[in-house]
Amino acid sequence: MARKFSLMAALAMLCGLSFTVQAAPIILLDDTFDTENGGAGQLNYTSFTNWNVTDGSVDLIGNDFYDFYPGNGLYLDLDGSTWSAGTLESKNLFALTPGDYELRFDLGGAARTPGWWGASDTVSISLGSLFNESFTLNYTDPLSTVIRNFSVTTSASERLIFEHAGGDMAGLILDNVRLSQVAPSPVPDPGTLFLLGSGLAGLALTRKRPRRGRELKGGGVAG
């Protein structure tokens, strides 16, 4: 009886562990801009791998080229050098299925003392009707990571858009854009499931094994 209870306790523990491995998130977009233009900055850049500039202009800066945030590789000034703030739109039309999603990006102030440009700037970010938010930062605000979570209930296909307001050639700084679908549910750990199956088989064998005492009592002959 003690052996049976020990085995049952072990199986219960295994059942509790059998669904602890989380599925990896599905990465839809992960862009640091560091490989653009061979790693060199360029004003009014348009040849992005993942983006179209659909209005105005943006500057690809950093790596010692108008490097307002040293050590961050290449990044974007969303109000380029044409007096017309940029609109950045993803080339991919993301097919979003029901589930939970995470959008993250680094956003910072213009990092230039106001002259003909203002002390603050605003960018509106949208993913169709699934996500819409505007951010206004002062020029002294540091480059910081923004994380937003949202849920999709009905399948949709949308583009990610960053639309900067104004047009004074000194805009908010954008870097490290990532869009991912959060793992919908845990998945079984094959190794733990193997242990669970082995334990169940052992329990079955234990239940089928006759006891020696009963054999002697039922059919044994005294010697």
Secondary structure elements and pairings:
Blueprint: H1 2-17, E1 21-22, E2 26-31, E3 51-55, E4 59-62, E5 74-77, E6 87-90, E7 94-96, E8 99-108, E9 120-127, E10 131-138, E11 144-152, E12 156-158, E13 160-164, E14 173-181, E15 186-187, H2 190-208, H3 212-219
Antiparallel strand pairs: 1-15, 2-14, 3-6, 4-5, 5-14, 6-13, 7-12, 8-11, 8-14, 9-10, 9-13
Helix pairs in contact: 1-2
Short description:
This protein is 19% helix and 37% strand. The protein has 223 residues and is α+β, with helices and mostly antiparallel strands. The longest helix has 19 residues, at 190-208.
Q: What would your notes on this structure say?
A:
The chain is of the alpha+beta class. It has a domain at 26-181: Sandwich (Jelly Rolls), CATH 2.60.120. It has three helices and 15 strands. Strands 2, 4, 5, 8, 11 and 14 form a six-stranded antiparallel sheet that branches. It has a five-stranded antiparallel sheet with strand order 3-6-13-9-10, with no helix packed on it. The chain has a two-stranded antiparallel sheet with strand order 1-15. The protein is globular, with a radius of gyration of 30 Å.
